[in-house]
Sequence to fold (204 residues):
Amino acid sequence: MNATEVIDGRTARRNRNRDAVLDALIDLARLGDDEPSVERIAEHAGVSYRSVYRYFDDRTELMLAAISRVMGEAWLILDIERIGEGTLDDRIARFITTRLAAYRQLAPLTRHAMRRSVTEPAVLAEFDNVRTYLQGQLEEQFAPELALVDPADRELVVAALDVMFQFEALEFLSRYETMTDDAMTGVLTRHVHAHLDAAHLATS
Fold:
């Protein structure tokens, strides 16, 4: 075995172990451990405690890498087919289906990340980027109705719509109101109609 093969082997092993640490954090979150210790992550990944800090400088870097990993999978779920097209009822249904699927996929790690965001600006910044993207998606999906809203009120209507699709709102409906996806769909459908129908009537 030559030196190049040795280096390549070490790099491959390092990448496998790094991936194992990320998978362990994501796995533990999905199993209900919202704040796993580094020791627990290392044990679940099958690596040593010290190894975790060979692959990541600190917990913030680990958290950001895990978010990036999960979001890489989630962007496809968040994609809305034919965005902005179709009847209002059709667009509402597709929007809600997409957001609930994303919530189910992202909720475990999001709970952990939200705790980290309180003290770690880099994690908070990642949250802000995702929220900005999702609000833009909402505006594009309901652009025909929002175009009818008085410009002075448009920002308020968007905020009123957007707030019910925030992670915290979906978490409340799911975990504290113990609603099924069907029940959440009913609540969210009524919410969107209430604001868009009211905006439409105001311009009639």
About this structure: Confidence is low (pLDDT under 50) at residues 2-7.
